[in-house]
Write a structure and sequence with these properties.
Helix 9 packs antiparallel against helix 10 (401-414). A hairpin with a 3-residue loop joins strand 18 (349-353) and strand 19 (357-361). It is built from 14 helices and 24 strands. With 558 residues, it is an alpha+beta fold.
Length: 558
């Protein structure tokens, strides 16, 4: 009836019994030995379904079984027949690391990957990514970025991970594979392993103004790329980090990295790099601008040079080509850098030389935005905004708010070279906290406009006039939600627009004259700032700036 029970059961004493005749009882309602012997059948307890059955050995005689114990492993007969060859035991950690590395190295793919992996296990399958990680580790070790120290429970140890990026050329082809070791700085504790974190970057108006001056004076603009820029910053705090994934020291697996140089991902890394770079530039004769601290000027009375810093990307231009090469050599003596020659691709902006000057375009960036939004085949439109106004009206919430914020955030950077979409992008930015379907329709209209104007750009023309003039304008109570007004300005340097801004004003205006006056004040503040910047650049002012306004009441007030 129960074939699985037809076998010989051995107890601890070496005796056995026939389990086919064993009586059973319920664990939830056990029966005594007397009642078990009085039962008509040993399986009588099975008549109640759903009971947990346990074998009762007390009512059955046990007889001595023949020896079934396995022979001793040291017996000569077993040793003579067994084919296994024993070897000395190796350390467990070292054996695991070496065998895993050997298996991974044997299965790595030689083909060049076309996508960026997320995890280390995925990247280590490809030779290209493995070589990129080895190059990064080699650079970190040669720079003496860390030293291994024993772990102590009082340490705040941050983690680390690999970030993989495929660097493309302007034409879209793959330039190189970049693997970067990044510290998980979000686990740092303020006051323990970091304090100050602020680090300045170059302003967009400064970049456009320096480009305009260089084009008008026929100067060369060199582009420099600092290799592993953040690794040059010296840390003054004690920061500890786990050993990099895939590159754990097998002799000291429990040790942690005591960081001596800054690393990408640390909260103070940008500041440490900027301090090191600025100290070196000041030591070789550069002076930092007072209105934009990421702009450095070097002047010897007859020649002048400008150096712009945006994290690890550097632009260098000046009036003497031979002196430019000398400055590049000075920088290369302190930092490991690549001289990319004339600027052609800076911060995702394509720079093309024309017969009239320079053309700044973000064509590739626009195509990437359209791909992320799934609108590569959309129908173009002629304007970026529709006549209807946006509002926080009761509407169906947009199904994917994160996607909305990502696309709108990408459009904000596009205004670097596209002042024609600045007003439209500002409108949709006001609803990033609670986007609705109507707001997404407005974003799609901007994308459809960009589809038809993807090749448009910002043209810096060569001119002889260095005069500043600007235009200001504003609506009145244009916002349906709070009745605030939107104002903006556009400032020209000669024939080239270099600064623009559109945004909602902070207070509610009582008249159109008040609105226009506030817009004029914002435009005037920007022009004054540009005048100070031109003074630092040692560009003489030929005439007083002119600001145009279309409100008669404002012109009477000023």
């Amino acid at each position: 009836m129960f074939p699985a029970l037809q076998h010989e059961v051995l107890d601890n004493s070496g005796t056995s019994f026939d389990s086919s005749s064993a009586s059973l009882y319920s664990a939830s309602n056990p029966v005594s030995a007397d009642s078990a012997s009085a039962a008509s059948s040993p399986l009588a307890a099975v008549s109640s379904p759903g009971l947990n059955l346990v074998v009762d050995l007390s009512a059955y005689p046990l007889h001595q079984a023949t020896s079934v114990m396995p022979p001793s492993p040291t017996s000569p007969s077993l040793l003579s027949r067994h084919p296994m060859v024993l070897r000395s035991r190796q350390p467990k950690t070292a054996n695991m690391v070496s065998s895993a590395a050997a298996n991974t190295a044997a299965t790595r793919v030689l083909l060049s990957p076309s996508s960026e992996p997320v995890a280390f296990s995925d990247a280590d399958k490809y030779v290209s990514w493995h070589d990129a990680m080895c190059d990064e580790i080699k650079a970190l070790r040669s720079n003496h970025t860390w030293s291994l120290v024993p772990f102590h429970p009082s340490m705040n140890v941050v983690g680390s991970r690999w970030v993989y990026r495929i660097k493309h050329r302007v034409d879209g082809s793959i330039d190189r594979y970049k693997a970067r070791l990044v510290a998980r700085g979000f686990t740092q504790q303020e006051g323990i392993d970091y304090s100050e974190t602020f680090s300045p970057v170059i302003k967009q108006a400064t970049v456009r103004l320096v480009f305009s001056i260089a084009v008008s004076c026929n100067w060369k603009i060199h582009q420099l790329d600092i290799h592993n820029a953040f690794l040059n910053g010296v840390l003054i705090e004690e920061v500890y980090m786990k050993q990099p994934p895939g590159f754990v020291d097998t002799t000291l697996p429990s040790h942690v990295c005591r960081l001596h140089k800054s690393l990408y991902g640390l909260k103070q890394a940008p500041r440490a790099w900027y301090i090191h770079l600025s100290d070196f530039l000041l030591s070789i004769g550069f002076l930092a601008s007072k209105v934009d601290t990421s702009l450095f000027i070097l002047s010897d009375g007859t020649n002048i040079f400008y150096l712009l810093v945006y994290v690890d990307d550097i632009l260098l231009t000046g009036s003497n080509s031979a002196m430019l090469h000398h400055l590049v050599q000075l920088l290369s003596s302190e930092f490991k850098l690549r001289d990319l020659g004339d600027v052609h691709y800076f911060l995702g902006i394509e720079v093309q030389s024309t017969s009239m000057g320079l053309m700044l375009c973000q064509h590739k960036y626009i195509l990437n935005i359209l791909t992320r939004a799934g609108m590569t085949s959309c129908k173009p439109v002629d304007t970026p905004v529709s006549p209807s106004k946006l509002a926080l009206q009761p509407d169906h919430p947009f199904s994917d708010p994160t996607r909305f914020r990502q696309i709108v955030g990408a459009l904000q950077y596009l205004t670097f070279t596209r002042p024609d979409i600045c007003f439209a992008v500002n409108r949709v930015c006001q609803y990033m906290h609670a986007p609705t379907d109507s707001h997404w329709v407005a974003v799609k209209r901007i994308l459809r406009y960009l589809k038809g104007t993807a090749s448009y750009g910002f043209h810096i023309t060569r001119g002889t006039s260095f005069a500043l003039h600007g235009f200001t304008d504003a609506d009145w109570a244009g916002s349906i939600d709070d009745r605030k007004s939107t104002g903006g300005y556009l400032v020209f340097f000669g024939q080239t627009p270099i600064s623009w801004k559109f945004g909602k004003q902070r207070t509610v205006a009582c008249s159109s004259t008040e609105v226009e006056y506030k817009a004029l004040a914002d435009g005037t503040a920007e022009v004054i700032w540009l005048q100070y910047l031109l003074t630092d650049l040692q560009v003489p002012s030929v005439s007083a700036p002119t600001i145009w306004c279309d409100n008669l009441g404002v012109t009477i007030l000023v």
